[in-house]
Design brief:
Strand order of the largest sheet: 1-4-7-6-5-8
Oligomer: single chain
Shape: globular
Number of strands: 17
Length: 304
């Protein structure tokens, strides 16, 4: 097991609630010049889960599960700014009010711009939730370090999830990390150049059909672990030849120019110390048994 400073991490409870769906009035125009009006960010999304394909939906920037905010009216201000930075992928969440009180879920990503934290809950809980219900996230992960690999930096990652990622130590002081997809540097778009990666995401541009086919980008699913080649996220999102960053797919494909499936950063190194290896099942749903891999409640037996 990788040596970390897990015992030094600070645990904080964060309160939030489902954020209503957000749309701009009127038409938006795709990168192909086609106008559209479709569902987009936010909401309690009933039929899109972690493990589902991030492509082919009649929507744009769709967020799976429950899109959460501490202040939907002022997404860039306190306390929502703290929620965005301190919540980490894999953190446990619990509904503490309403008809779904007591149901537990997991944080699956955060989306910059909308400033939402996405949480996966059982389908039965989604049907009972309202936009006034309260959710508590048990935050733990920011500040997590790999003690034997100081050049590899971690962000937004619950230590429990790190331990499930099947990372292997290999010769040369490197780590081998399972991912479903290798994303070339030229495909990274909206969000590139951000000052830090402890919140939000940046998008894999999917406007070039040949590149999408070559790298299998249209096979991406919500919750897939991916490798961003020649990208260093240590102090912001930047192109650095030889660098590798590991991220996770947090929102769907998009129709707007410069956009596509969103990636939240988990690991990064400016040098080639992270070796991505293709594993088709490297997905959050399987590791945490959530989303499409969540066990269904057993059916009640009818009395005879």
């Amino acid at each position: 097991m990788l040596k970390t400073n897990e015992d030094k991490l600070v645990e904080v409870l964060l309160q939030c609630k489902p954020g209503p769906p957000r749309l701009r009035t009127g038409w938006r125009v795709s990168h192909e010049g086609k106008p559209f009006i479709l569902p987009s960010i936010g909401g309690i999304t009933l039929n899109v889960r972690v493990g589902d394909s991030a492509f082919g939906l009649a929507g744009d920037h769709i967020e799976p599960g429950v899109s959460c905010s501490a202040n939907p009216e002022k997404p860039f201000e306190f306390p929502n700014d703290a929620l965005q930075i301190l919540s980490c992928i894999g953190n446990e969440a619990r509904i503490v009010s309403g008809d779904a009180k007591g149901e537990k879920g997991r944080v699956t990503g955060h989306h910059g711009g909308s400033e939402h934290v996405m949480v996966d809950f059982p389908a039965s809980a989604l049907e009972k939730l309202t936009y006034d219900d309260k959710i508590m996230i048990r935050s733990r992960g920011q500040g997590l370090k790999l003690l034997d690999y100081p050049d590899i930096r971690l962000f937004n990652l619950d230590p429990g999830l790190l331990n499930k990622m099947k990372i292997k130590e290999i010769k040369g002081g490197r780590l081998r990390v399972p991912v479903t997809t290798l994303v070339p540097a030229q495909c990274m778009g909206s969000g590139l150049g951000s000052a830090h990666t402890a919140a939000g995401d940046y998008d894999v541009m999917t406007s070039d059909p040949d590149t999408v086919r070559e790298y299998g980008l249209d096979k991406l699913r919500f919750g897939d672990f991916v490798a961003l080649l020649d990208h260093d996220n240590s102090y912001g999102r930047a192109f650095v030849r030889g660098a590798v960053s590991i991220g996770i797919v947090v929102h769907s494909d998009c129709l707007l120019a410069g956009h596509g499936p969103g990636i939240s950063t988990l690991m990064t190194c400016p040098m080639a110390l992270i070796e991505p290896v293709i594993d088709p099942i490297a997905n959050l749903a399987g590791l945490l048994k959530i989303g499409t891999q969540r066990k269904k409640a057993p059916a009640l037996r009818k009395k005879i």
